[in-house]
Every structure is written in C-alpha cells, then in structure tokens.
Amino acid sequence: MTNSKNIPLIFSLLGGLILLFIISPLISMFLATTPLQLFETTKDTEVLDSIWLTLRVSFLTTLFFAIGAIPLSYFLSRMNFRFKNIINGIVDLPIVIPHSAAGIAILGFISRDSVLGQIASSVGLNFVGHPIGIGLAMAFVSIPFLINAARDGFENVPVKLEKTALNLGASPIRVFFTISLPLAWKNILSGLIMMFARGLSEFGAVIIVAYHPMITPILIYERFGSFGLKYARPVSVVFILVCLAFFILLRTLAKEKKSANA
Amino acid sequence: MLKLKDISVKLGDFQLKEINLNLDKGDYYVLLGKSGVGKTVLLEIIAGLIKPSSGQVFLNDEDITHKKIQKRKVGIVFQDFSVFPHLNVKQNIAYPIKGKKIANIEKEDLINIYAELTNISHLLNRDTQNLSGGELQRVALARMLVSKPDCLLLDEPLASLDVQLKGGLRKLLRYINQSGVTILHVTHDYEEAIALSNKVAVIHEGKIIQKGLTKEVFQKPANDFVANFTGIKNFFHAQFSPTNTANINGTLEINVSNKDQIEKGKIIIRGEEIILSNEKIESSATNNFHGKIKQIIPYLSNHEVIIDIGIDLTVVISEESLVKFNFRENSKAWVSFKSTAIKIIP
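^ Those are the sequences you sent over. The predicted structure of the assembly is below.
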C-alpha cells in the first residue's frame, strides 16, 4: 500500500531530473548571455546572413521535397506490395545512420566525379559548397519526418471516404486533392514543420558538403573553434530562439489537431 | 436494368458464389441476409469498388464489370453514411456536381431541390460534425441523388436509426423510388423488406437461396432457412380507421392498436401468436374469426396451418396440438389473436 502510494512521487522525481537535464544547459546558456551581447549579435551581418540562409534553404528544400514525399507517403499508406517493409526501412534509414556518414554519402553523390555532379557541371553548377548541396544534405537527414507524418495522416483517412468520392463521379486525382489531402493535412503540416525544423538544426551532414556558404550551426561551430565559448554562445542563443519559435508553432498545431480529433 | 450474372468472389473467410440478380427499372429490390454474408461486398462489386473473381455486372445492357468506378452510374450510400467531415452540408451535396459544366444557378437549384426533398434545407450551412445519424443519412442521400445515378445502392440505410427516424426515412426512400429511381437495398431486417420492397432476394452462406416478389418469398419460403429467417407469412396491406380498426384487402376488419394514428400501411401478425381452436374461446383477444383450414404444412418442429378467414392466415401450432385437437384440412376452426399482437409498419 505504502509502496504504491510512493510510486507517483518516485516517478515525478525521476521525470523531473530528466526535464532538468534538458532545460538546465539551455537556461544557463541564456543566463550567461547579456542583453548587450544579444543585441550586438542581432546586428552582426554574418550571423543574420547565415540565419537567413539556413531558414531559406531549409524552407525551400522542404517545399521541393514535399512534391515527391507526399505522393510517396500516400502510396505507402494505401498500397500493399511485397517489398513494402523494405521501402519503409529505406525511408527511416537517414534517422539511424550518423549524419557525418550521411554527409560523406551525399558528397559522393553530388561531387564533380559523380553522374549528378557531371550533369550539374555541364550547366555550370557545382553542388558542393552551394546552397543546393546544403539543401540536399538537409533533405537527406530530415525527409523521414515528413514521409512518416504524412503516411500516418493518410492512414487515418478512411478509405471508404475516398471510395465514396470516386462513386460520386470524382476522378482519382480529384479525390486525392479534395478528400485525402485535406483530411491528412494536419499530419502533413506537422511533418513539413518537423522536416523544416530538422533541416535548420542539421550540422553533421552539411559541414561535409558545404562549409561555405555558412549555415548557422556551422557558424556557431566556427565561432567556437576560432574565438571560444564566449563568442559562440550569443549566436547559439539567437538561433535557438528562432528554432524555438518554430517548435512552439509545431506544438500549437499538434494541440489543435488533438482537440479537433477529440 | 441492373443485372448480375454469375458473380463470384472470395474475400478472406467468406465467398459469394454465382450470384444472379435482375432488377427492372423502378424496382425496389431488397437483398435480405444475416450480417457478414457478403451483402455489402455485393454492393461494392456493383459500384466497382471490389473486383469480382468471375461474373459480370450489366447496367442498361452495358457490361460495366471493368468500367471505372467514377464512370458507372450506380450510387452507393454506405451504412456509416461516409459524409465528408471537412465539408459542410452544402459542400457535401455539391461534391458530385462541382467542376461540372453546369451553370452555377443550375447547381444551386439542384442542391436546393434535393435538400428540400430530403428535408435538410435548414442544415445547408451547418458543419457535418454535429449532425444526428438521421440527418447524416439524409445528407448522404441528397449528395447521391444530385449525382443522378441510374441505380441507387443502399447499405443497411435504416440500421442505425431510431424507430421514429426509420419511419420518416422509409417514407423518403419510397418517394425516391416512386419518382423513378431503381433501388437495391441490403438489410438483415425483414421488416424493411416488407415495408419497402416489391422484390426480395434472400442470401445465405454466399448464395442467393430464394428471390422473387416479396409476397411470394415471404409466403412461400423455399426452405427452412428462408422460413425461419423471414419468419413472417401474415403480412397484409391495410387501411386504418381512427377507431383502431384495420381493413385488410377490403374483406376483413380487425381490431388493432394504432397508437400513431397511421392511415395506411402494412400489418404483420406472427403465426405463433395466433390461437387456433375448435370452439370460440372467451379471452382478452378482440380478434376472433371462424374459417376453413385450407392446408396443413408439416415442418421439423411444428406445423403451419393455413386458414381462410376472408384472408389466408398462417397459424403455427405444435405436433401435439395438431393431434390433440384433430385439426384437418377442409375442417372448420376458430382463430383468435390480440390487437397488441399485430405489428403495424407505416
């Protein structure tokens, strides 16, 4: 009896320690940064340029890859075929491999020696050290978040509604755009935001593909390596605030979805 | 009009075997069977949502077995209504005609006509999330009718409605059928077949075991299963008077308990609830008639006695009673039943 009474207390203590572990380093970093340092950092064009580049590349990459990822998610949610588990495994692969190794793989894929690199060279493009290369590295590590969320969303759409729409005379493409996509939209939106946020924070894969132009996670690393913790910290705080804004947006959307389903 | 020829399909544990059905234009055809025998699968085959292993589906003499779902002119209304939750009532009804080359004013007219027909004009701007089962059913029907199908397929349309809503919807379905729409309606409820259909087919273990005019199937069941499943042989069209009497076929007047003051409908009297006797018996039963036994049909556990009291009434009695009271064909007997034993179907 006494033991079972203590269980919530023990669980709260253990859980509290984990929350403390997550929050303490962030709080200490914020506390160690003065408002003046923050103000100076927001005026630093190198920092602003890198944040803008990170946001822009991650955003455009997310949109570009969504064009293929959303139909793939729909396909995976609706079709049953022999190698479906293998395809699902391939989708999750970027999550489990080290990001530096992913960067090496991407570099091999887009370097001038590769087929893709040669095709790009023929039109005067070099993906290595180019925002497109950064985008490819970001997409590689973040796309599973979009595909998995969208697939879950489509799986929650009753097939019967799609059948009904077909029976009412709608073409399969109209059914997709008017029934499946709107009904799975909350999940897809969560996936898009998650992919975007994950792209923003990518470091390991991008640094292999493109040190310059410098995305913010690399700038933080560079400031730390060249000038030390004191100079890296304000950039980190500003960037975390930007990421936090998107994190809050994501949580709000997820909450709305939950109450809509209730 | 709609013809199924040797349709067979195997899905998981059950299969449909060589289903043959023939619906004429204007038919209200009820496919009657227990849950899980494949009634819905058959509707989905007709609508093109499931491919049959063999057999053909014809609509207006055209083989539509392999025709695209959206090109067939058969409309299915599912048991769970499948109303689109992200669209409001009006958008749901407009779905089949959206994007079609029809003037907007004509589209509005169509929406209003069918909303009025299904009595949901007042709900047009409402979200579908908060509608009742009956209202959702009407939205699904209006949406389907807007698409003007040649044949309407209804999957247990009354199953999830309460008694009052059932009455209203039956009236609506009858009206839709009378306005020229051919209907194939699947159900496990024999009352729906009696109330609505002109033809009925009984499906059991993946096969159609009897089909034909509703009256014939109910009154002359082909085997014990149909007899037990339909169970009702005494059903008649009747005109009701305000004094709680019903006139059957203009030949017999019986006392009924007509609480809802219905003017016209059908009545059911279960054979098990009728008492057969050699002498008139004094009891609380207000319906007592003298008649001639036309036929005695033996079944496994009991006998059916058909007695002519102006109408042919089927009475179910046990072997012991038959022997004890010595009922014989062409002999006279009395029947007695309470007004509360009579079920009225509007």
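The mean pLDDT of chain A is 90. Residues 32 and 233 of chain A are 8 Å apart (CA to CA).

Shout if you want it in another format.
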